[in-house]
Amino acid sequence: MSTKxxxxxxxxxxxxxxxxxLLNELGDLKSNKEQIKVDNIGNCPYCQSNHxxxxxxxxxxxxxxxxxxxxxxxxxxGTALQGIKKRGQFxxxxxxxxxxxxxxxxxxxxxxxxxxxxxxDWRHKILCGLRSNIGDFENITEVDDIWFxxxxxxxxxxxxxxxRGGSKRRGDNDFQVKLLVTSDxxxxxxxxxxxxxxxxxxDIERKIGDRIGDxxxxxxxxxxxxxxxxxxxKINHVSFKSSKHIKDDVHxxxxxxxxxxxxxxxxxxxxxxxxxxxxxxxxxxFQFVESHKNKVNLLKDxxxxxxxxxxxxxxxxxxxxxxxxxxxxxxxTYRCPTKRNWKTALKxxxxxxxxxxx
Length: 358
Ligand SMILES: [Zn+2]
Prior knowledge:
It comes from marine sediment metagenome. Pfam families: DDE_Tnp_IS1595 (PF12762). The protein contains eleven helices and eight strands. By secondary structure, it is of the alpha/beta class. It has a domain at about 140-280: Nucleotidyltransferase, domain 5, CATH 3.30.420. The chain has a five-stranded mixed beta sheet with strand order 6-5-4-7-8, with helices on both faces. The chain starts with a helix and ends in a 29-residue tail after the last helix. About 30% of the residues are buried. The structure holds zinc ion (ZN). Zinc ion binds near residues 47, 68 and 69.
């Protein structure tokens, strides 16, 4: 039976009232009306205050006024939905991502009848809601650093042709973007882009320092920075030569090695390399997928990648976050800023939830 026939069969089973409700909703879907409703309006997207009151309507939607900062907002302000007119298609896009993973932009453009630029923007808007660095690491905790070539893929106006990174030689060099992979045996994990160049102990401190529980035994290769991080923080540490990957049955880094090779497969092969600017966003996606591996239907959580009130701010400030990262954690030169402007982008980016570069 085709999907359409199945739907018709199911439709017949509904009672009269539900039938007419559904028909109305389908009508809305067709005309791209507000499909995705957020039940709980929550805090002010500008200042996070919960001191808000209803304040009339805006284009048919309930408007709210924040008593703390005196700004108006509706349910979608600050979320991935801000500024999106084709809501039905956006919802479809999100469900494709959650069910099928990252699908090439040209395919998405064709399937949903949107431009490639829109397909790109929507992908990254959704990714901006996915960083979940919650929970402390417990017990055996593996840590390793992996690298990706520095890449300015997609950046316009560069004077030299090699947009896709520098030297491919092994060993530490200033074209290697380092990503720290941490995982304990309960699948609490973290994937953080830390620096371009050699990993430092303070990078580890900055990224996972406050998530190391008292009972943690850190397992890694003999990287001096990991060693000094452990020593400084008085963390039990088991290490071995990196060629061996294993000390004994319990002390190995096979979990993080597995994560790392799957991530490299996704980014370097499936997506044929991603720009350093978006590397952390993709790592967040991957981390999200890995930590939800055993959960059957991701779509049951209707908030995923959608209603986080910082998503719009995060999305519109990625270029600034990236610029800060390059200036602070690399010896590369930040060049040719992307010239895109959003009227509602916040000027003060300090309070913004960043994708994870800082
Ligand atoms: Zn406010």
